[in-house]
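A further point concerns the way the authors explain their paired sequence and structure data. For illustration, here is how one protein appears when written out as sequence plus structure tokens:
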Amino acid sequence: MFMNFRRIHKCQVMQLLTTCMVLCVVMVCWDELDHHVVSHMRSYSYRYLVNSYDFLNSSFNISSNHHRKDGSNDVDGRLVNYQYLFNHPGKCGGGDGKSRDDVLLLLFVKSSPENFERRQAIRDTWGNESFVRAEQGATVRLVFALGVHPDVGQRSRVQSALMQEDHIYGDLIQQNFLDTFHNLTAKLILQFHWGHKYCPQARFLMSADDDIFVHMPNLVKYLRQLLSKKSEAKDLWVGHVHRGAPPIRRKDSKYYVPYDLYPWPSYPDYTAGAGYVVSGDVAAKIYQATLVLNSSIYIDDVFMGICAKAMGVSPQEHGYFSGEGKAPYHPCIYYHMITSHGHTTDVHSLWQAATDPTVYSNSRGFMGNLYCTVKRVMLLCLPYYQNTYSCMAAFT
């Protein structure tokens, strides 16, 4: 038996080259692999096996000496008491000695100063207070939470435009902090402090981004169902829940959190900040937490989770609250939709399609339910749409 040494040599060379290529790919992609695999494994181990986050109360007490990246905290970590530039204390009634309105939902939309078109689209569609009152018989109060434009050169022009906008609509709540990503926690605190002072009677409070779509008829129906079961209208924090999420340590990510700011491998559970709802009692608890907890965490979703955990509140998953993704466009989805994220140019058309009366008529009856269940399985249980609704939502 003769051996072909040339052939063996060629095989060894190919094996060596292949091994080198694989090693190069692993080295180049190691940060991504570490973030998506190793970090999540450590995070889940920490969440489920090691710790119950009892450290939060002591570590994030207001006396802790943490500082925000942009330096807007004072020495003890407490947020500055920012001045109101636009405010409407009587939005929920109670101004000038008047009685307070019976508010089902206080709707806070986080918006950037320059996003006039997004705010206008919301006013015209799902945030239209008059529509909700006329069609659902519910009182919803819409306000927009803003800081000031971060560009000094554009600030004066933008403020003049905001002044005109607020004069027409009377729904801007603005404080004197820079409207940047690293001040989102300041915007979250603005919402709960304003709600506590000027609209404490609201049964529910919703926080939403200005690129979200809310199916208001479905949301109102859902909230009324909760009120009919009084026990379920308490201790409520509902949305798209992130469980055991690890801090992102890659410095090129805008969600980067350094170890000295949050040294633990897992965040407490929290809902996606794109859109979530809390009951009035939970809103009051979050307000109290913001008074005693350090607000150095600039990711507002995570800070909300820290406040809630410290107050003994846990988030609840709802299949039709979207995460960071956009929900499928289909009537069988609209029938159950609460929120969908990532809508900046199609809000009017989606509102018209989602609230069309035929959506409900076509989904009724045995055949209608069967068809829509099959359609939702095809849309939600295949890897076409990520981070919107789970496959389980197809069967609800």
In short: Residues 331-395 form one domain.
